[in-house]
Amino acid sequence: MEGAPLRRAHPGAGSGVIAGKRRGRTGGYIPRPMSRRLLRLLAAGVLALALVTTLGACSKKRDFPIREGLGLEVNGLKYTVFITRELNLRDPEDKSYFKGPEAPPGSAYYGVFLQVCNEGSKPLPATRDFTVVDTQGNHFQPIPLPATNDYRYKPDIVAPHRCLPTLGSMAQIGPASGSLLLFKIPNANIENRPLDLQIGASGTQNVSDHQRVELDI
């Protein structure tokens, strides 16, 4: 009697493996273990998600300066530097910003014109904490301006949905449309670009809480 034709055994026959699965102790089938490459990809995805979540939670604190014209939040208020430029006190317009005296030889006056807005629902105080810092770590404080100066920055309480300078004021309708911070900076330090305006909430001594704007000088 001729024997029946041989039938090819299924791969894994006798080893408990069928169609890419392994037979468990109870007779069921369990999937193959994940490859190392797949595990690495999954771990990278988890880390990326954690990083995005962390950055989102810390988005209000920037570790790098922003450019002029962009607003940044400090203590609930939005500060926007419109323009920074050297003041020439022999020019009639600049003379209205600051009447003098002239800067000493080797130095110059720079005006930083900015706006502060309250987009929240309660009154908030505008900060008094401004410093210009160069790349060598030199610090420059604003020059106090007299109360008679219509363009000077006034750290007032800002009402909800209001801005400084106030609507219709000389500073607001002037060419720069912002309140003036005046700095006297030696010419040698201007070479230490970029110079940043450092803005902090009044009363804090923690430099890490300050925000920075890169000045276009």
Structural features, described:
The protein has about 220 residues and is of the alpha+beta class. The protein folds into two domains: about 15-55; about 65-215, Immunoglobulin-like, CATH 2.60.40. Helix content is about 15%, strand content about 30%. It has helices spanning about 35-55, 90-95, 170-175, 185-190, and strands at about 15-20, 20-25, 30, 65, 70-75, 75-85, 105-115, 125, 130-135, 140, 155-160, 165, 180-185, 195-200, 210-215. A five-stranded mixed β-sheet has the order 4-15-14-9-10, with no helix packed on it. Strands 5, 6, 7, 12 and 13 form a five-stranded antiparallel β-sheet that branches. It is globular. About 20% of the residues are buried.
Number of helices: 4
The CATH class of the largest domain turns out to be Mainly Beta
* CATH topology grouping of the largest domain: Immunoglobulin-like
Strand order, main sheet: write it out.
Answer: 4-15-14-9-10
Poorly predicted runs are: 1-21, 50-59
Number of strands: 15
% residues in beta strands: 25-35%
- Please name the CATH architecture of the largest domain: Sandwich
Question: Biggest β-sheet, characterized?
Answer: 5 strands, mixed
Please write the string of helix (H) and strand (E) elements: EEEHEEEHEEEEEEHEHEE
